[in-house]
UniProtKB/TrEMBL annotation:
Highest rank taxon of the organism: Bacteria
SUPFAM superfamilies: ISP domain (SSF50022)
UniProt lineage: Bacteria, Bacillati, Actinomycetota, Actinomycetes, Propionibacteriales
Entry GO MF terms: 2 iron, 2 sulfur cluster binding; metal ion binding; monooxygenase activity; oxidoreductase activity, acting on paired donors, with incorporation or reduction of molecular oxygen
Protein name: Rieske domain-containing protein
Pfam families reported for this sequence: Rieske
Species: Nocardioides zhouii
InterPro entries from the UniProt entry: Rieske_2Fe-2S, Rieske_2Fe-2S_sf
Domain Rieske: 13-109
Keywords tagged on the record: 2Fe-2S, Iron, Iron-sulfur, Metal-binding
Gene3D superfamilies, per database record: Rieske [2Fe-2S] iron-sulphur domain
Length: 131
């Protein structure tokens, strides 16, 4: 059985990522959160890729705004420093940030492998433990 590992995925063209405008893309077909990626170009010319889901609620960070290298969630206005993704007022609640690289004019992000599918029994047990 082949082992699925993290993989570099193309997210958007470099020119699509304006300095203060997050770009949201779906870059996979796993149906899992890892497919949702947000790219932000910082004022320092760095491209930051994040999970496009706020750690607070299921709101896309790409719908937010960027000011002074801080990404502000459109949900409840939590602020995340870029490039670290650290929440400005609660450092232990940061956004998920992925490594990036530029290849042939594309911003690529190193995304985790999709989680292995669970059996119905495993899923039900996991749900029961959360209640
Ligand atoms: S959903 Fe992002 S701060 Fe609440």
């Amino acid at each position: 059985m082949a082992t699925v590992t993290a993989a570099w995925e193309r997210v958007c063209r470099v020119e699509e990522a304006a300095h203060d405008t997050p770009v949201g893309r779906v870059v996979g077909s796993s149906g899992q959160d890892r497919d949702r990626v947000c790219v932000v170009a910082t004022s320092d010319g760095e491209y930051v890729a994040l999970l496009d889901r706020c750690p607070h609620r299921d709101i896309a960070l790409s719908g937010g705004v960027v000011r002074d290298n801080t990404l502000i969630c459109p949900g409840h206005f939590w602020r995340f420093e870029l490039p670290s993704g650290t929440r400005t007022d609660l450092p232990d609640r940061g956004a998920t940030v992925y490594p990036t690289r530029i290849v042939d004019g594309w911003v690529e992000a190193l995304l985790p492998a999709p989680a292995a599918p669970q059996s119905i029994r495993e899923w039900l047990l996991a749900q029961a433990r959360q209640d």
